[in-house]
Amino acid sequence: MQEEIIKALNTRYATKVFDSSKKISEENIHTILESARLSPSSMGLEMWKFIVINNTEIRAKLREAGYGQTKITDASHLVLISYRTDIIENISKERLERTAKIQNKNISDLEGLKKMIDGSIEQKNKDGSLESWVKMQSYIPLGIMIETASLLGVDNCPMEGFSLDKVDEILELKNKNLKSATMLALGYRGEDPESKRTKVRRDFNDVVEFI
């Protein structure tokens, strides 16, 4: 398994050109999205939503908002990773209700968890770091989807090169209490010169230190 993981990550690269005729199987796309759903999050708050955009007209609009990047329309699947803007109003209540239901507990037994969540959110709101914290959380499932896709032999490319405001407007995210963070194009590489380049990474000992 160790060899398979390293081989998959050595093979993957930020795919710029996708073969629009090749589609990811339903089983594989479900596995990739399920890996995102199972991602860890701070205090288990899951402050994100993943929007899979299949509509060709919407993807054409998103391509305009993404400065003409062909992968937005040509990739088999396009996933927008968004983060929630209603954290203060709803997230604590939802977390407690979800936990009580799944673990068969009374909400009153989760008072300690409630205080921890509410206290943390209140502090971050006071010091102005709340939104950046929530947005950073969304990069956790992004990384996990990238690795899952790579292990499944699915090419991928994370993207931040797009107008956040325009994407939010196109997808009407404000009405859903969401903001866009990043996108992930998924599919199979086409005739892409970048795929033939040797991967450039710093040496292991340059980036890992044991103390």
Features of this protein?
globular; 10 helices; 13% strand; alpha+beta; NADH Oxidase; 4 strands; single chain; 211 residues
Task: Tell me what the structure shows.
By secondary structure, the chain is an alpha+beta fold. It has a single domain (2-87, 128-207), classed as NADH Oxidase (3-Layer(aba) Sandwich), CATH 3.40.109.10. The protein has helices at 2-11, 26-37, 56-65, 71-74, 87-102, 111-127, 130-137, 139-151, 164-170, 204-207, and strands at residues 48-52, 77-84, 155-159, 178-187. The chain has a 4-stranded antiparallel beta sheet, with helices on both faces. The protein is globular and about 60 Å long. It starts with a helix and ends with a helix.
Summarize the structure.
This protein is 48% helix and 13% strand.
Low-confidence stretches: none
> Which percent bin holds the helix content?
40-55%
Q: Mean pLDDT across all residues, rounded?
A: 97
CATH class wording: Alpha Beta
The CATH architecture assignment turns out to be 3-Layer(aba) Sandwich
For the record, the count of structural domains works out to 1
CATH topology: NADH Oxidase
Distance between the termini: 27 Å
Number of H/I helices: 10
CATH homology superfamily name: NADH Oxidase
Shape: globular
DSSP strand tally = 4
Structural class: alpha+beta
Element-level helix/strand string: HHEHHEHHHHEHEH
Widest β-sheet, arrangement of strands: 1-2-4-3
Largest sheet: 4 strands, antiparallel
Radius of gyration: 19 Å
* Strand content range: 5-15%
Topology record:
Elements: H1 2-11, H2 26-37, E1 48-52, H3 56-65, H4 71-74, E2 77-84, H5 87-102, H6 111-127, H7 130-137, H8 139-151, E3 155-159, H9 164-170, E4 178-187, H10 204-207
